[in-house]
Amino acid sequence: MFPYISLTTIYFLTIKQILLTVRTGLTDSICPGEWYKVIDKIKKCTKCKLHKTRRNPVPGEGPCNAKIMFVGEAPGGKEDETGRPFVGAAGQFLTELLGMAGLRREDVFITNILKCRPPNNRDPEPDEIEACKPYLVRQIRLISPKVIVTLGRYAGRTLLGDAGVKWTSMSRMHGKIFSVELYGVKLKIMPTYHPAAALYYPKLRPVIVRDFKEVLKALVEELANEGKRGESGRPRTILDFLEKS
Ligand code: URA
Q1: Which residue has the higher pLDDT, 19 or 142?
Q2: How far is the CA of 112 from the centre of ligand 1 (A)?
Q3: pTM of the predicted model, to two decimals?
Q4: Residue owning the nearest CA to atom 7 of ligand 1
Q5: CATH placement of domain 25-243
Q6: What residue spans of the chain are helical by DSSP H?
Q7: 189 close to ligand 1 (CB < 6 Angstrom)
């Protein structure tokens, strides 16, 4: 009787997981059920006016146990069309920047402050940020990343502000590392410019490149080797760090 009941339970739990996985479009089965519930809620969300004009909500993409998280502003046209974050021109540049920091896109979690596109890509409004923030808070608590890179002033101001760091200006704060406790998670935040800003203002390109290529890369290398060596005694690489806890 007991093995029969537990097998039935396992069967239904697995079916539930598969259904949630299919609904959320994610295939990563190591994530807790709560993870899929959040994505499901984002997909059905009507908490602010943006649900009336969006085509697809964009919950975010990447492993639920990612060590590094990137938080942008809000989905644009391509993201709204596909339901995936940073897939337009700014996204292509972000993928390039990740490579410069020694990171692969599939190893990091990428999301936004707002999960739905503001009409004509206008700036996020305070009521939209407030309505949407609980989703990001839950994502950050579930992922519990070591590093969050904020892309653009909305993400920087919101997350650093919530971590008790006063936002001054992007030109003063970008490329600096803040060790904070954010929503109960101890982590480091590196604010930087939004990749789209560097596409509009070519002078910003070397600045954002430096933030990724020098500051972020050095930070991730340092975290990879914090108190640990690889199996052979050699320093752990960034990829060792991303793949193993
Ligand atoms: N800009 C953002 O802030 N986020 C995206 O997902 C795409 C463009």
Answers
A1: 142
A2: 7
A3: 0.87
A4: 86
A5: 3.40.470.10
A6: 2-24, 33-44, 77-82, 89-100, 126-143, 153-162, 170-173, 195-200, 205-210, 217-224, 238-243
A7: no
